[in-house]
């Protein structure tokens, strides 16, 4: 009887590992209608592809999810492609990263903590990415783009500024004259450091939706970030509307469990119909 129990436990463990390996590459495409107060009618229906946490360079089926997500974004041709950090987990992934980023339409990106070697993952090696041909890399700076004859500001914060406890001064960069202000940050909790209504839309990643999760009635325990306040999906905050991507790659272990990798298409709308984000 004892041997039967041991075999059953080992079989269950093997099945869980196989599933976690499979899920790490099982990409989900989600379309989210995101209603923003004060959005100009001309920007109604603006389409933003939100990608995050590639973690290229380490053995993981997350690389497959990244490849599929990029192919989807290229085919979808959104108005903007916004990438919120942790592009690499090892320098050997940099050549492929550059190939993938170069093909993304209207791409703007920020770095994450793995990109600057500020990670607890023993398998991660930081890479100082200074530029990304084909994309605009924002480090505590902002740029203005013209979309549908309206000014859209895109700002990005460097992860070292957030680790140091600040906001990289991006709140001071917010241009009140632009018709839509978007902030890219690897860390979602930047919203708690910003003044009210600093930005219309804030995009972040980092949490991986917990990556390895344990279900319980009515929810799940997110093992990767047990105390994360903003785990996944959309949130109304005083600083602006926040969207947190579950990301595409993996860290520490090449598995995901109840936290599928995701590429998200955000479709902006006026708030006439009420808030329709995900959480």
Walkthrough of the structure:
This protein has 279 residues and is α/β, with parallel strands linked by helices. The chain has a single domain, classed as Metallo-dependent phosphatases (Purple Acid Phosphatase, chain A, domain 2, 4-Layer Sandwich). Helices cover 20% and strands 27% of the residues. The chain has five helices and 14 strands. The chain has helices spanning 2-23, 62-76, 94-102, 159-163, 170-173; strands at 28-35, 47-51, 80-84, 107-110, 135-137, 141-147, 150-156, 180-184, 201-204, 213-216, 219-222, 233-237, 240-244, 262-269. Strands 1-14-2-3-4-5 form a six-stranded mixed β-sheet. Strands 6-7-8-9-13-12 form a six-stranded mixed β-sheet, with no helix packed on it. Strand 10 (213-216) and strand 11 form a beta hairpin. The longest helix has 22 residues, at 2-23. It is globular and about 75 Å long. The N and C termini lie far apart (45 Å). The model is unreliable at 273-279 (pLDDT under 50).
């Amino acid at each position: 009887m004892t041997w039967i129990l041991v075999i059953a436990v080992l079989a269950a463990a093997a099945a869980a590992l196989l599933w976690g390996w499979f899920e790490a590459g099982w990409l989900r495409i989600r379309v989210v209608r995101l209603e923003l107060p004060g959005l100009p009618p001309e920007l109604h229906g603006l389409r933003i592809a939100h990608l995050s946490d590639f973690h290229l360079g380490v053995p993981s089926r997350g690389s497959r999810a990244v490849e599929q997500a990029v192919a989807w974004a290229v085919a979808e041709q959104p108005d903007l492609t916004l990438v919120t950090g942790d592009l690499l987990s090892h320098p050997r992934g940099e050549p492929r990263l550059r190939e993938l980023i170069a093909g993304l339409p209207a791409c703007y990106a920020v770095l994450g903590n793995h990109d600057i070697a500020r990670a607890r993952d023993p398998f991660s090696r930081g890479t100082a990415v200074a530029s990304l041909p084909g994309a605009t890399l924002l480090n505590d700076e902002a740029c203005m783009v013209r979309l549908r004859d309206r000014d859209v500001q895109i700002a990005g914060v460097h992860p070292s500024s957030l680790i140091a406890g600040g906001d990289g001064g991006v709140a001071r960069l917010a241009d009140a004259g632009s018709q839509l202000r978007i902030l890219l940050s690897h860390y979602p909790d930047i919203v708690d450091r910003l003044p009210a209504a600093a930005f219309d839309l804030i995009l972040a990643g980092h949490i991986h939706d917990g990556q390895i999760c344990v279900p319980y009635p009515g929810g799940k325990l997110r093992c990767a970030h047990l105390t994360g306040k903003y785990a996944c999906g959309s949130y109304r905050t005083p600083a602006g509307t926040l969207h947190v991507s579950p990301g595409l790659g993996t860290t520490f272990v090449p598995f995901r469990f109840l936290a599928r990798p995701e590429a998200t298409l955000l479709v902006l709308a006026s708030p006439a119909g009420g808030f329709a984000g995900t959480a």
